[in-house]
């Protein structure tokens, strides 16, 4: 690993990292597994040869745009998002498409722009809108505790995709758990289309199973699990017969990790860059305007928070549904920077 190159990426985020370093240290105390934060946060950027971001994210899909009252992030990460841009322009009162989103967003507030994008299934957020809203991890008790169990031998079923959930699974796997990654036959993990070396790093040593995601098809897989990691809307899993509350109640000591953009009660979608903006986790350009930090920063930050929450719960006997919000994880880091260096 070229630690010097990774170190260069760390410079801009260093002032925000105290809460994440504390969470990583606590995870190490629980599991004896060290967390290399430069690698966790920026290995993808290094392997993909990404440049440092500005008003456009490192991977080029997310854009920070000025609105009438501030800034909003609009993430055009998928082909469907790009196809929906004309409809978004119409919602924003700019149907002629002249000037695109950059010209259209000043017609609306940042919150209105984000809401319009979300109505079309586009991940978007007003800058700082998730600050102070909720904790990074909310634990809900739905099952009985068991005696504390060693991580070695625990069975983890990982239904998540992309980055945050798989990083959580990787860290728990390094602690000795057996990880099974489960993918839909019709909708495999989108990270497979990214840098192969990074995908291999995330899933090193994990088993993999491809399944038709139909009602009842996942029952047997979940029956064997001690921990489930997922990053889906609860209603999508319920259609498949998977309910966190029933999973936890069926056997003492189980843990369910649910990773979402804004909490399980919200249907809003999010990716790492727009979730970071929602949490206020941005830098400043020479004019004092926001710029992106790092590479989809809320993703790996959330993965570390989620792994620590799972390890903590297991050490205390489990029985918990852990609701991990990407935007709230980002806000935890942003809020710590604000407290140390309050704005003038």
General description of the model:
- With 344 residues, this protein is of the alpha/beta class.
- Helix content is 40%, strand content 16%.
- It has helices at 3-10, 18-31, 37-48, 79-83, 85-91, 100-104, 110-119, 164-174, 196-202, 219-223, 234-239, 244-250, 272-278, 298-315, 326-340, and strands spanning 62-66, 71-75, 123-126, 137-141, 155-158, 178-184, 207-211, 227-230, 255-260, 283-284, 290-291, 320-325.
- The strands form 3 sheets. Strands 4-12-9-8-5-6-7 form a 7-stranded mixed β-sheet, with helices on both faces. It has a 3-stranded antiparallel β-sheet with strand order 1-2-3, with helices on both faces.
- A hairpin with a 5-residue loop joins strand 10 (283-284) and strand 11.
- Helix 1 (3-10) packs across helix 3 (37-48) and helix 2 (18-31) runs parallel beside helix 14 (298-315).
- It is globular.
- The chain starts with a helix and ends with a helix.
Describe the secondary-structure layout.
Layout (H helix, E strand, L loop, with lengths): L2 H8 L7 H14 L5 H12 L13 E5 L4 E5 L3 H5 L1 H7 L8 H5 L5 H10 L3 E4 L10 E5 L13 E4 L5 H11 L3 E7 L11 H7 L4 E5 L7 H5 L3 E4 L3 H6 L4 H7 L4 E6 L11 H7 L4 E2 L5 E2 L6 H18 L4 E6 H15 L4
Parallel strand pairs: 5-6, 5-8, 6-7, 8-9, 9-12
Antiparallel strand pairs: 1-2, 2-3, 4-12, 10-11
